[in-house]
Amino acid sequence: MNALCFSIAVVFNRIDCATGLLLSSSPPSNSHHLPESTGSAISLATDDGHLRRSGNPTDGQTVRVPTASLKIVRRCAASVLNRTAEFREGRQNKDETNMTHFLRKSLVFFTDARLTKFLDNADHIYVMCMLCKRELPAQLRDKVSYLDGRLSDECFAKYLTSDSNDLGTHNRKVTLAHRVAIAHAQANNFKLPLVIEEDVVFKEDVNQYEFDSIAALIHSASREWEILRLAWYDHRESTTKECKRRHKRMCSQWVEQNMCTIETHLLHSSAAYMLPARSFDRFLAHPAGTTIDGGYGMLNQFKQTVLTPALCNQAGRYMDEELRSEPAFVKFCKVAR
């Protein structure tokens, strides 16, 4: 969703996610108590269900991301995380009109009991949002934090300067918000967080999914998986074409009815993924200028365990392409069971 991902000796007080992480005697508690901005705000606006840059005319001013920015990322966690859905009525700009319409029609992510049980394997859920209205089933709500993209924009704008082009794209802005989620998960000793973006659309019929084998993998002590992508997009069928070119079904590890693992750097989408604690350090240490999504991005540095077909997709103009790419990937890349 709303560019967003070392070792720093910091003593963390574990407190409720509603107030985030306490990093100093006077952490920023909300956007009104932060220092004055030194540059333009970082935007995480949405358009047709996909996160993008704002139409703000000052958005041409970009924000430099320090290489060692983890301390700032953790500090911003104190002001951008909320425990309950709270619709930002009137906050959206013109680019968010379509997203608002979509959310008004679909305020609950899903209601399926089997899907609820599967996602309950996560010990915390981060909803990356701009409008922050959609809710998860009641069984999951105690473990949910809403990461407000607008507040994330404001927080990073206060701490970072705007004297370079290091953060000139939408993806790099979204990456900062994703970094906040994983930094918060690490500091609070979560072992298996789920990150979802508010425009994700879960499959209506999940009867085809055999969830037990997937749950067995993510809790396995011997199979050191690195990331589980519930949503993924084989953009322009790049991975499928590579499988065809090599005449090899490359999604060949930990193959189950609805899962396989592949070494690839070509998949797209940060709409929904689980990240085990063993991957936190690599995620957070990835170069700050690298984006969350796309080739060689922060998610693609890991060995890719993907659900087949994807359990969810992003709403918007690319959704049809995402859905079309799934059968070809399974046909040419996944090893037959």
What does this molecule look like?
By secondary structure, the protein is an alpha+beta fold. The chain has one domain (31-333). It is 28% helix and 14% strand. The strands form 3 sheets. A 9-stranded mixed β-sheet has the order 3-5-4-6-11-8-12-10-9, sandwiched between helices. The chain is globular. Residues 1-68 and 163-168 have low confidence and may be disordered.
**Backbone structural class:** alpha+beta
> Roughly what fraction of the amino acids lie in strands?
5-15%
How would a crystallographer describe the biggest sheet?
9 strands, mixed
Low-pLDDT residue intervals, each spanning 5 or more residues: 1-68, 163-168
What's the rounded overall pLDDT mean? 77
Notable traits:
single chain, nine-stranded mixed sheet, two-stranded antiparallel sheet, 13 strands, globular
